[in-house]
Automatic annotation (TrEMBL):
Function, in words: Catalyzes the reversible isomerization-deamination of glucosamine 6-phosphate (GlcN6P) to form fructose 6-phosphate (Fru6P) and ammonium ion.
Gene: nagB
Biased composition (Basic and acidic residues): 1-12
Family note: Belongs to the glucosamine/galactosamine-6-phosphate isomerase family. NagB subfamily.
Protein name: Glucosamine-6-phosphate deaminase
UniProt KW rRNA-binding keyword: no
Pfam families linked: Glucosamine_iso, PIG-L
GO terms, molecular function: glucosamine-6-phosphate deaminase activity
The UniProt record lists the keyword Cell division: no
Domain Glucosamine/galactosamine-6-phosphate isomerase: 35-263
UniProt keyword list: Carbohydrate metabolism, Hydrolase
Major enzyme class: hydrolase
Pathway assignment: Amino-sugar metabolism; N-acetylneuraminate degradation; D-fructose 6-phosphate from N-acetylneuraminate: step 5/5
Length: 647
């Protein structure tokens, strides 16, 4: 089991010099784990060790606790340690960081509810030792209540171990930008970005409370040990700013640079913007080991930095920017040409392969001319949002294109949208047949509150709305209806926002479809930044099915291409097939996205970005084209990009 060691720990101080050199941009001690699971176990074990140590000394152990998605696995492990390994919480006193305001304890969105669900209901803590800011306090008593909260922390002896997450604004607790380093527990107003991030759990932005009660930055900093958790690509930017940037009230988490016993525990993706990972050649004598993905990354970075096209880079540009190692065996001239050609060859207007053309340097094979293709779309609109232009070309170039919609997408249809459809059906049928069932559904929808579990009827209705939006878009692209496959994978069909992990039943359904179609090409969403994780689970299902099928004869002729969902694009060095689009194709793609009407105008799960999906798609595809142009390639209107996956 990996352990975390604080800055004060001898083992950290005695790190090999090379590692310290690599970290010279970093102002906060951090440990990077392969994934959130391994990291969470290590953190849970540090907490467990502390509890046991304090027990052996006959002392209470005071924990400061956080909510949100980041600490869930830590709590899960603590519960396991209690149930299976006898870890007792009898000597534990807890203080939670924050609570929304106003907020009833019983509300499923409350942090009170969260903490009991994930931890307190499953351990032997004395309920009197649990402290969570109370969102039910009358407004005029809040100030006094907050002072008392601080007093209670003091009386308990101060916080021994403070667990933190970090918001994309750089908030810790709900200390939003502008918070003071000395701030104490108080009522605050939530930042717009924070509310956008919380919109998913609250079933829409407008339902997120305006305010919260939070421990202050000063309260957090007075803890004797602090561990901050961050997972995933959405945290990469703020982690980099917090660890490498200057201390600033605009990013309250940077105040942690002042604390002498803080560790950030992060996974590889959250760490990916740190200088030592993003541009490792800037921190050490970096050996590229002839890895051309890495070399391309470095050359593209150099072009971005110097605002030059690839063929315009000179020897001194490489030498003066830490990339001298690239010129040991090649001149700058040869290196430029090598990388230029490598990128140039990713561009093709023939995503299914070009008939009667030499395919040696093309991303796709020429044969067979007519390929069978499956586009896997995690939600009902990812196919057109993320690869609409390529989809359009594949059909137009005569390939047999199937689309597999992995989930119903019911979660993302607003009640008001569903109501509109039942009311239309009701008005049509009134006087012709019995409409009492429709009237019941109308009543349910009118009286529903945010967070109420969906009835099966409404869930199905919402799925149906999205299914017919799919027909609209695919008919527009001239795909026969029988090539649409609505998989309704069981992991998603929970009638709630929370989903199951991928299971046998899901994998079987995907496997069955691949067996039936015997595709030459599979397109799948390789986007792991989807805010509610559906893309990741959907992809896990495809990977598991491919693993099972890989020995089948027909699979030897099947290539898998990963596109990215609505949130991020591949970096240029990761792209292995890039499909340019004309202005007309961009407009056709927009039209196809428009068929997904339930997802227009403030759809429920916009994630952290308030632009509509068609806008994001257009801006992202135009941006890729712009980046190619800046690197010295031909000017296109827009481009979609793919990376090959080998199974
Ligand atoms: C929660 C809290 C917040 C969260 C932060 C990250 O008690 O105080 O600061 O830690 O918003 O949330 P997640 O972990 O959901 O990304």
């Amino acid at each position: 089991m990996s352990k975390l060691y604080s800055k004060n720990d001898q083992r950290i101080k005695h790190q090999p010099a090379g590692q310290q050199e690599e970290m010279r941009y970093e102002k906060i001690h951090n440990v990077v784990f392969d994934d959130a699971q391994a990291a969470s176990l290590a953190v849970a074990h540090e907490i467990a060790d502390l509890i046991t140590l304090k027990q052996s000394e006959g002392l209470p152990c005071v924990l400061g606790l956080a909510t949100g998605s980041s600490p869930i696995k830590v709590y899960k492990e603590l519960v396991r340690l209690h149930k299976e390994e006898g870890l007792s919480f009898k000597n534990v006193i807890t203080f939670n960081l924050d609570e929304y305001y106003p907020m009833s304890k019983q509300d499923p969105q409350s942090y009170w509810h969260f903490m009991h669900k994930h931890l307190f209901d499953h351990i032997d803590i004395n309920p009197a030792n649990i402290h969570i800011p109370n969102g039910e306090i009358p407004k005029e008593q809040v100030r006094e209540y907050c002072n008392q909260y601080e007093d209670k922390i003091q009386k308990a002896g101060g916080i021994d171990f403070q667990l933190l997450g970090i918001g994309r604004t750089g908030h810790i607790g709900f200390n939003e930008p502008g918070s003071n380093i000395n701030s104490a527990t108080r009522m605050v107003t939530l930042n717009k970005v924070t509310k956008t991030d919380a919109a998913e759990t609250f079933g829409g932005y407008k339902n997120v409370p305006q305010k919260a009660i939070t421990m202050g930055v000063g309260t957090v900093l007075s803890a004797r040990r602090i561990v901050l958790l961050a997972w995933g690509i959405n945290k990469a930017e703020i982690i980099e700013k917090t660890i490498e940037g200057d201390i600033s009230t605009h990013i309250p988490a940077t105040f942690l640079q002042e604390h002498n016993n803080t560790t950030f525990v992060i996974d590889q993706t959250a760490a990916s913007n740190l200088t030592r990972f993003k541009t490792p050649w800037l921190v050490s004598d970096y050996d590229f080991k002839k890895n051309y993905d890495e070399i391309t990354r470095a050359v593209v970075w150099l072009c971005d930095r110097l605002k030059k096209p690839i063929l315009g880079l000179r020897e001194e540009d490489y030498l003066e920017n830490g990339l001298g190692n690239l010129l040991v065996e090649k001149s700058a001239y040869d290196m430029n040409i090598k990388i230029f050609n490598r990128i140039q060859r990713t561009i093709t207007g023939w995503p299914g392969g070009k008939p009667n053309a030499d395919d040696q340097y093309r991303p796709e094979r020429e044969l067979p001319h007519k390929k069978r293709v499956i586009i896997f779309s995690p939600h009902p609109d990812d196919d057109v949002i993320s690869m609409g232009g390529t989809f359009d070309r594949l059909v137009e170039q005569g390939h047999e294109v199937h689309i597999a919609y992995q989930t119903s997408g019911s979660t993302a249809v607003a009640d008001t949208e569903a109501l509109r459809f039942v009311e239309v059906a009701h008005d049509m049928l009134l006087g012709k047949t019995d409409v009492s069932h429709l009237e019941e559904v109308i009543k349910i929808l009118r009286n529903k509150k945010a967070g109420d579990k969906e009835t099966l009827d409404v869930w199905k209705l919402k799925g149906n709305i999205r299914r017919h939006e799919c027909y609209g878009a695919t008919r527009y692209y001239n795909v026969p209806d029988e090539n649409l496959h609505f998989l309704n994978l069981p992991f998603y069909e929970t009638q709630a926002v929370e989903k199951q992990p991928i299971g046998e039943a899901d994998i079987k359904i995907i496997e069955e479809l691949i067996r039936r179609v015997k595709p030459h090409q599979i397109y799948a969403a390789g986007d792991l930044a989807d805010p509610h994780g559906t893309h990741k689970v959907a992809l896990d299902g495809i990977f598991a099915a491919l693993e099972r099928l890989k020995h089948e004869e027909y699979m030897k002729d099947c290539w898998v291409w990963l596109y990215r969902g609505a949130w991020h694009e591949w970096d240029i060095h990761e792209m292995e097939m890039v499909v340019p689009m004309t202005r007309d194709q961009v407009l056709r793609k927009r039209q196809a996205i428009f068929f997904h009407q339930s997802q227009k105008d403030g759809a429920m799960y916009m994630g952290s970005d308030m632009r509509e999906f068609w806008q994001r798609a257009e801006e992202r595809n135009a941006d890729t084209a712009k980046r190619f142009r800046e690197l010295g390639f031909a000017q296109y209107e827009a481009m979609e990009a793919f990376r090959r996956y080998f199974f």
